[in-house]
Amino acid sequence: MSLSASLSSAVSGLTAQSAALSAISENIANSSTTGYKTKETSFEALVSASMKSSAAAGGVTTSLSRAMSVQGTISTSATATNLAINGSGYFIVADSTTGVTSDLAYTRNGNFSTDASGYLVNSEGYYLQGYPTDEDGNVVGGGVSGLATINLSNLTSPAEATSTVSVSAILPAEAEVGASFISTASVVDSLGATHIIDQTWTKTATNTWTLSTGDPYSATTGATTGSASASTITITFDSGGLPASISPDPSDVTFTFTNGAAAATVDMNLGGIGGSSGLTQSDSGATVPGITVNTISSDGIRAGALTSVAINDGGQVEATFSNGLTKTIFQVPVATFANATGLTQISGTTFKATNLSGSATINLSGIGASGSIVASALVGSTTDTATEFNKMIVAQQAYSAASQVVSSVKDMFDTLISVVR
Question: What is d(CA 326, CA 321) in angstroms, rounded to the nearest whole number?
């Protein structure tokens, strides 16, 4: 091996160890970075001539990769929109709110928060992608084409008119025929306004009662706010105090309102025939008989404004509104790759798919090869500082040894030149 070849080998060693030290430095610097994947340095022998020659000059070259399959430690977070993935996979993000296919990227950095425009964006400025849901919280669409940039602005819960009033009450069996008792219920119209209705229970014969519903009125002013259809519901009880018949069935009452809301047909759910969950009749044992109301409930809701957003385990984005309603509005999916080490880094902890990685396979949390989404949590860096310090010592020793070779070759060149002189 010539002096020049020796020098070349030593210089390649210096270059390789410099690259290793650079990777170690990056790893240590990012030991607290959310979703960071450790950079690994691989060394390969480099031969510049045929191996048949005993004077073949050797060297070394390096290649860099990421520990993409290593799971970082998951720690809890106080932020309801922070996410972690336990297992394989990446969050799908985009560098713009349009979320077109060419903008899609992948990251383990689940440090998401809501920006001024209502988008969920992580600490690197990438927008979270998800699948929209229908009114029942079911995912709409799938694959890459079904993704949308998650936006939480302008979310409201529209009013839902009452369709059912359910009554659970005990009518006094000892009441005189002709006796009447009043209970009250509330209904919500299509505009979200609440109206009070009086329910008049009249005993018309032994074990027989009628229910008539009064016109709706305001709970604050008492003013009439509409009208109720003039329908009477008849209920008969058997000798055990359970309903024997309810007529008509269904027991509907139609309300019209003066505020412009749509007319509402409301089912008066008084329980089932022979059942005890709704109306029953029994002796009250009271000096003055009266109706005992257990519960009277209705299913209408007022319009509500957004009060909070959270993402639960599994990746469902849930919005809670001032009317008490909570709805699933998006589902966060997980992307996996046949060869995750083939992803190319574009920024910090964000990667793009390549021919080496293959196309993304998109599933919901925990389905197929996808890891499970953990709510209110973050995944830490995969850097092990103890391991990195060990690598640093090895790299430092190898660099020092290579530099000694360079120094020795210099001395030998100096000797050779002095002989020529």
Answer: 6
